[in-house]
Amino acid sequence: MNSLNLIESFTEFKEFKSIDRQTMMRVLEDVFRSILKKKYGTDEHCDVIINIDKGDFEIWVNKEIVPDGEVEDSNTEIAYSQAVKIEPDFEVGEEVSEEIKFEDFGRRNILSLRQNLISRILELEKDQLYKIYKDRIGDIITGEVYQVWKKEILILDDEGNELILPKSEQIPSDYFKKGEPVRAVVAKVDMRNSTPVIILSRTAPEFLERLFELEVPEVFDGLITIKKIVRVPGERAKVAVESYDDRIDPVGACVGMKGSRIHGIVRELRNENIDVINYTNNAALYIQRSLSPARITNVEIIEEEERADVFLKNDQVSLAIGKGGFNIKLASRLTGYEIDVYREGAEDVEDVDLEEFADEIDSWIIDELKAIGCDSAKSVLEIKVEELIKRTDLEEETIREVFKILESEFE
Asked: Per the database record, which ranges form the S1 motif domain (predicted)?
């Protein structure tokens, strides 16, 4: 390794790792001074001159001129008779500067320098990567799938840095192959064994927010504010938006003409249903909007319990609850109220709560039925077997057995 190759390696490192000039100069000087300390015991009498642009460097050793026969340390002193050979005008007490060639360090010192250099490069690279991505938390990035494992995916960014997308941060229906482009948001940056680990996410609400900024110029420009986002990744999301400009319809702008803007986001999220609603400080109206597409008859809010009783017609209950109960769960998270759904005028003393059948029907089956809004015997019997098969994970045989048990109660 000669001086030219050494500087070239740093120049290349600077170009690819974005190390600033000042840092690179400091690292180079530190590396050389560590070798000078080993060689001379000190580096205080040495000058290191580095020229990054030309790709070279110079090392000068300054020695004090002493009378002949009084040299005590040849590393820091030089005899008068030797000094005048360099420059006849020199006098005792002055300093002589001698240039040291890189090759003069010896093979062992050069190898030590190289190892020190590699170590500092790796250290700088890690620090730089940590700083870059620490500042990018919450930002969306695009990378390429490099390796697919059972619990996580290794992704490379444009500069070849390794990023991790854990299985828990992937949308359930995500499926990636090596070489495929991936978009995700930077969720967090950890240091593990002095190595930065960048964790990405496609399930975080911030990912959906960044997608809206990319697809909707009014959101990017701040004309439309996203007040809150709640998601069940891959299934459903609710986005509350607001605009301080009365001329802008925030929901219409986010959805776009014939859904042109929202469609791109939905495709990226593997067909996740996205409800965009107008934010309001009116709690009752906010709850009503959050339960879209169901049409609400009345809302009663119990503030001290942070609870809301919502009344609907029979045909709207299943819409309010939604498939798997996602609609009502997300509405509760969005509004901050625990929402209970009631059928309008549904005071049927002959109806029986499903929990009353716990001795005859397995609890997991009852949970499946409750998840689709069926919390009583009659609410189950009102739905056809075929419809229940579609809306739950239950087998036809299981559903028919449940029907027999419930029907026998009313017989």
From this structure: 138-203
